[in-house]
Design goal:
22% strand, elongated
Length: 332
Amino acid sequence: MALAERYRWVRWATRWGLSLLSLLSGIATLVIFRRGTEHFPWILGNLLLLWVGGVVFAQLRQALKARNRPIMRVAVDFTLQSLHHELLLFLLPIYYASTTLSSRNLWFFALHLTATLFTGIDPWYRAMVLRQSPWVGHLLFGFGLFASLNVGLPLIRVRSGWALLLSAILSVLAVIPAFRRGFHLSWRNAILVATLLGFLAATIIWSVRSWIPPAPLYLSGATFARSVEGLQPVEPVHMVSVAGLQAWGGLACFTAISAPAGLREQIYHVWWKDGTPVTRIALSPIRGGRPGGYRTFSKRSDLGADLAGRWRVDVLTAEGQLIGRVRLAVTP
């Protein structure tokens, strides 16, 4: 405090230094680990570190507070905050790739971005988590676990639907020590409460699954075309005239979907015209690990008499999560 009163830079470092260090640490994590989803051991290792750190540091912080060790408590708080920030920042580009910006799953990405900024700006984090309510920190902890498990489980060949449910349950079970400490429960009662809340969370998540991007699945390529030959689009277009479409005698939608190696996932192409669903076509299950993504397509020759309008194809998982969207304008 004496140094802060004498030197302005000390006051600035006290207020913003931890935020800057946390941001730099998160960027370093992003640069090192963002080489593709094949580096899943690093993801799961960072996730395990976050969980162990969250449980151990929360207990340690209470002990340090009781012993009046403020400097050590600040160090523990910064370490836990950095773990949160690094994990959320690492997952941010993965969820961005899986998010369709013109759909409702944009809201989950916006929530993820908000949590990332919140954990990276130290005055906000300190004011809300450390001074006001520790449950805000527990919510951030649970959200980070859910977001990371939702990415990590498909990397070990768990289908996206099961990954959603397991991520919701496990992210609640991981904060059992917080329930025990916050509500002064026995371990048995804390486990019972967390289990019930975990299944409630899974039910809620399942009901809003269309709002959550199907990370780590994403479209690596997509277009409408006259046809597809050798799993390559022929005459790809984003706009075509009615006369040109009639001359083709049909229309194909080509998509390439990136997925982790070993993952098999059922997908669908849902065709729309002017906001009205036209047909739903089941495709062969994608197989992950293909360079450039798993290439597949659907084709329709019965487009109807009124061809002009705005066409689109939604690429969905079997559970209804939107992987991506392809658009086509048909002019008169």
